[in-house]
Every structure is written in C-alpha cells, then in structure tokens.
Design a protein that fits this description.
Chains A, B: It holds the Pfam family PRC. Two copies of one chain form a homodimer. In chain A, about 15% of the residues lie in helices and about 35% in strands. Chain A has three helices and eight strands, in the order βαββββββαβα. The first copy, chain A, starts with 13 loop residues before the first strand and ends in a 6-residue tail after the last helix. At the A-B interface, β1, α1, β3 and β4 of A face β1, α1, β3 and β4 of B.
Chain lengths: ~120, ~120
Amino acid sequence: MTDMTTAMDQSHELISSARVEGTPVYSPQGDKLGTIHAVMIHKTTGQVAYAVLQFGGLFGIGSHVHPLPWDKITYDAGRHGYVADVTREQIEDAPSLDLDATDRIRESETPMYSYWDSKPYW
Amino acid sequence: MTDMTTAMDQSHELISSARVEGTPVYSPQGDKLGTIHAVMIHKTTGQVAYAVLQFGGLFGIGSHVHPLPWDKITYDAGRHGYVADVTREQIEDAPSLDLDATDRIRESETPMYSYWDSKPYW
C-alpha cells in the first residue's frame, strides 16, 4: 500500500501495519534475513503475537512460514528496516507453520516461543 | 495483499494485518461505516492502538483520518467485516487526525479515547 502512511517519520511511537508489511529484516551484521509479510494480531486484545517472515517469492497452498516474535525485531531508521539479532540459520531451524494455520497458533506456537526464548503474548 | 492469508477461517484467535486492511466496518444495522485502512501498532509493546478508517477515495497530503479504538470493532464472520456499535455521524463528529500524524498520537489521542469512552492502549 503506497500512501502517506508509508512515508512518515520513523521516530514515533506507533507504526502503521501497512508500513510494517514488506519491510526487510536484517541481521545486526546487515544480512537480509527476509521480509515481513504481515503481523498476526490477537483479535480480542489487539496484541501483535508475531511477525510472519517471507523469504522471497509468493506464498501458495502448503507454504510454510517462519514466525518471529515481535519482541525480537527492532526498527532501525538508518537501515529502513527491522533488525533481529538472529541468523538466517536460526530462522531456518526455528519452528515453522503452515501458512493456513497462522491464525490458529495458540496450540502450536509454544515451540516457537521456546525456541526464541521469547515471551508469549498471552 | 491477496494470498492465502486473506482466505483463512474466521473463527481463530489471531488475524493477519493483511486481512484487516481493506475490510469493511458496518454498524449493527448493517450500514457501511467505512473501511479499515490500517491498524496502528505500538512499536515497543506490539499493542494495536487503533484502527484508521477510510471513507472511500485515496489519501493524499493533508488528509484527515478517523481513528477508532480497536476495542470498538468486532469481527463478524457472517458479514465478512467488522461491526462497530457506532453511527456514521458519531465517527464524523469524533476527533480526527492528520494522516501524517497518525504515528505520533500519544499527545493527541486522548480526546479520541475520551470521545469513544474507550480504554487507551498504554
């Protein structure tokens, strides 16, 4: 989505979902780890559970996606992207999800949070 | 964004940001109040602060947008959209924001939450 929302100052407290989507994620060393496809939001609480990373190409039926907890990524205005202190190998080793199961994650997400030593959102 | 994410079952706990965007919002009587342009996410906590509604047309410089607290909208699978127990007139009377200020809302959002008698996210 291209509009003014995507052109805002990076220094503010809030960020538009439209700007998060499509934003690259880099390692601290500057390697591109992937792109944020979308964030998954808990319907009732409005809490972002995790970001879904994409590694290029389009998703199709049967795609596996790589969830990354929100608290693992930090916006870096200088890089125009997010930085996660993880490696591509860690992401590839991390629990993946069937794309069509990304919204019914509760029972399946515990391994993801354990793997990343991250705090579940609930 | 059109992909499998947008075709998922509506009954699960999480929802993709990509599916929220572009989704209509109806009154309980079925009147279309607008469309969700995006949700604004607190960068640190990952909490959705509010949804930005769009009333048709594209945003340009100087556009005013209408924020609606997340807890005012509920997904209705039967309507394939959200339902908010508000009227179009209430939305038009509610505090609006310059689009380019939607991510620096803290100081300006208090009237919005007061108007809607809603709980601020922070």
